[in-house]
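Worked problem 6 (solution included).
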Amino acid sequence: MTNTNERLERQVIGLIAADRLDIPISSLSGKLKRMKPKLASAIELPAGSYNGTRVYARVEPEDRLKARTMSEAVDDFCTEHPKYGAVLQQMIEDKRSVRETHLYFGMQEGCRLTAEDYLDVMGSLGFTESQATVLYGPLMDASRNIARKRVESERRIMIG
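Solution. The predicted structure is:
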């Protein structure tokens, strides 16, 4: 292979490894985001606060202004200004044509990424070599479990 081909091969391998690492990390992140409110709601604080040896917690009610959602704002506008509201609704419903550029990528049949390919990407994320090595196994296990549930196909990413 020429230097250009080797460089392109390494770049695409890096993209595939990053994409595959993103899947289990995103999945775990989503689970954690859904878990936190449930855990917080289950905590029953005596007298609204707790001061332990290692942790503390308290409940404080706050009066905060919350922005309307777009749909609430549009509904209110349509109620107050029916003539212009109809125009606004039509503008929202109109589809607009946009031009997007996507990079499609994937692995050649029968080829696989190596541990080094993944560890390189993890290193670029700021993990030390030892941290990446420790995390590699569990991440790959999670990735394989997720991959069993979906069909591995060509992937794409918008680049413009």
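Discussion: The first helix runs from residue 3 to 42.
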